[in-house]
Amino acid sequence: MLIDPLQLQALQNQDNHLLLCCLLRPVGVSAESINESDLIPSSQLFDIDDFSATDAPFPHTLLSASEFEIKARALGINNDSSIVVCDNIGIYSAPRVWFSLTLMGCNNVLLLNGGIPAWKASGYPITHDSVTASREGDFSAREQSDRVATKEDVFAAIGKADVRIIDVRGAARFYGQVPEPRAGVRSGHIPGSANIPYANFIRDGRFKPRSELEKLFQDAGCSVDKELIFSCGSGVTACIGYLAALLCGYKNIRVYDGSWAEWGAIESLPIEL
């Protein structure tokens, strides 16, 4: 699932290899405080907003399989494409790109551990220009819908001993100590959920070693025989937790796509502080 800069450099000139970079800015972070110009050569830009449903009431809602297929083909993605995804933060939005692609049936997708900063630190060249696909791909979407949880699934999971809901927002948001950044969204968390802030999975822009990730899950009351449902603000950083769980050998895991943007906005849904 992960690839390092040396391995990516070796792939750069292979046929049917695609490098997709996401430049999504973290909530509350200004453009001046992060680098949005440096790119790895031969990168295509993957816009999470463009790959989100425009008619959905909540941000970053996954596209339908048919809509995703059209946009993926425009990026030149084929059924047999070898894809590497990265972002400019290190580990932030790239896991969402990885999740979206694999959810829709892309079978050969790796994530650059450490992203563009790790590539630069390794001494490899940087460009400021992205590329576009030279031809349309032939990708056919095959959605694995069992990897996505709805609000009904999450509500049904509350209080179940064999399910753990993991919220990866920061602790202050989880405990309702600060206002939510989105208007009309209540503060707090899903009853019975555990908090593992997504930053806890990461060190120096890379995923922590497996042993440290496993301890994070164990301390939150998780075990490999339980189902894990990941939530965040809008379904993006939940994918960091999802990928961390995969790296630890968890199999029965889902992402709550609506996440707190949906749950916190619906008054009839219960919350805890």
TrEMBL record:
The keyword Plastid does not apply. Coiled coil: none annotated. Residues 40-128, 159-272 form the Rhodanese domain. It comes from the Bacteria. InterPro entries: Rhodanese-like_dom, Rhodanese-like_dom_sf, TST/MPST-like. The keyword Chaperone does not apply. It holds the Pfam family Rhodanese. Gene3D superfamilies: Rhodanese-like domain. This is Rhodanese domain-containing protein. It comes from Cellvibrio mixtus. The lineage of its organism: Bacteria, Pseudomonadati, Pseudomonadota, Gammaproteobacteria, Cellvibrionales.
